């Protein structure tokens, strides 16, 4: 059984990840035969882009595909799985947090296909160089998922559900929170008539430093210096933004605490 390949896929969901993943699969010669989505407009659009049929009712999807990829909001995974009967067809979800076995009511062969990248709306994002974290409850499932993943990227890992939750949590800090910090910085600048462009070299350089590793060694700023007068000036500048002041204080205190716990830079 382990020499089987994935020729055709059904996509369940038509959001950001389904769009990027569906297009990447088609580019690698894997057919997307059907798309199901709760709202027809997005489902039809994705189906059109990948050359698939749009199926408006989940109970009507084919039971003959090689792989079913459920790329939907985490809360929708279980209810959709409960309305599927796929026998032993390989069914995966794409969540960083949800347990693989949520899918077990739909199929005996389940798994996870979790790309560790951000796929925002409106910006083409390829899979080359993207880590894809896999899990399956069967050896055949693992083999087949790895086969698909390796068509998209060289960075393929097997990660169990507990590890994946922690991976996702670390990604929230590294990506989602960092991006929100950019949002705060942009707001502070533009509401004081300065362009966000001013910060772009700093953002790029900070990311370049971070990917070199030993990250805290690159920490700069008033908190790590213990520069109390500057911390106080920044706090007074944020008097009109209590929500940003809360973030400023929490992160500054964490930096000071981290330095205390881990010694000098
Ligand atoms: N985007 C990323 O960067 C990324 C990266 C790695 C993993 N993931 C994972 O991929 C999954 C999808 O994420 P996404 O970013 O593609 O989300 P998204 O763009 O917000 O799309 C959500 C999808 O879930 C469907 N959905 C939401 N609530 C539903 C419900 N109650 N019943 C049925 N369908 C429902 C939506 O259908 P409608 O169109 O009808 O609303 C849509 O197809 C999530 O598990 C996410 O953690 C995402």
Lay out the secondary structure.
Elements: E1 8-12, H1 16-27, E2 31-36, H2 40-50, E3 53-55, E4 67-70, H3 74-82, E5 90-93, E6 110-115, E7 132-136, H4 139-152, E8 156-158, H5 161-190, H6 200-210, H7 222-225, H8 228-237, H9 242-262
Parallel strand pairs: 1-2, 1-4, 2-3, 4-5, 5-6, 7-8
Antiparallel strand pairs: 6-7
Bound molecules: NADP nicotinamide-adenine-dinucleotide phosphate.
Q: What does this protein look like?
A:
The protein has 265 residues and is α/β, with parallel strands linked by helices. The chain has two domains: 8-159, NAD(P)-binding Rossmann-like Domain (Rossmann fold); 165-262, ProC-like, C-terminal domain (N-(1-d-carboxylethyl)-l-norvaline Dehydrogenase, domain 2, Orthogonal Bundle), CATH 1.10.1040.20. The chain contains nine helices and eight strands. The protein has helices at residues 16-27, 40-50, 74-82, 139-152, 161-190, 200-210, 222-225, 228-237, 242-262, and strands at residues 8-12, 31-36, 53-55, 67-70, 90-93, 110-115, 132-136, 156-158. Strand 1 (8-12), helix 1 and strand 2 (31-36) form a beta-alpha-beta unit. The radius of gyration is 22 Å and the shape is elongated. NADP nicotinamide-adenine-dinucleotide phosphate binds at residues 13-18, 37-39, 42, 71-74, 76, 94-96, 114-115, 118-119.
């Amino acid at each position: 059984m382990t020499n089987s390949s994935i020729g055709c896929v059904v996509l369940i969901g038509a959001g950001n990840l389904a769009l990027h993943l569906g297009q990447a699969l088609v580019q690698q010669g894997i057919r997307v035969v059907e798309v199901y989505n709760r709202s027809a407009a997005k489902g039809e659009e994705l189906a059109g882009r990948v050359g698939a049929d749009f199926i408006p009712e989940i109970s009507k999807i084919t039971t003959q595909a090689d792989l079913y990829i459920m790329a939907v909001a985490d809360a929708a995974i279980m209810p959709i799985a409960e309305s599927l009967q796929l026998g032993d067809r390989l069914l995966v979800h794409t969540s960083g947090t949800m347990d693989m076995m949520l899918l077990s009511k739909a199929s005996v062969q389940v798994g996870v296909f979790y790309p560790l990248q951000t796929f925002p709306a409106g910006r083409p994002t390829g899979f080359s160089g993207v880590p894809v974290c896999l899990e399956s409850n069967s050896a055949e499932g693992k083999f087949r998922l790895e086969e698909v993943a390796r068509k998209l990227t060289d960075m393929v890992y097997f990660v169990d559900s507990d590890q994946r939750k922690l991976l996702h949590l670390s990604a929230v800090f590294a990506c989602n929170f960092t991006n929100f910090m950019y949002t705060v910085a942009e707001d502070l600048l533009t509401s004081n008539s300065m362009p966000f462009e001013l910060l772009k070299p700093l953002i790029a350089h900070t990311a370049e430093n971070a990917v070199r590793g030993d990250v805290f060694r690159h920490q700069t700023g008033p908190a790590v210096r213990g520069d109390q007068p500057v911390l106080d000036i920044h706090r007074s500048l944020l008097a009109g933004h209590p929500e940003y002041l809360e973030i400023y204080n929490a992160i500054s205190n964490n930096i000071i605490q981290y330095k205390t716990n881990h010694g000098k830079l």
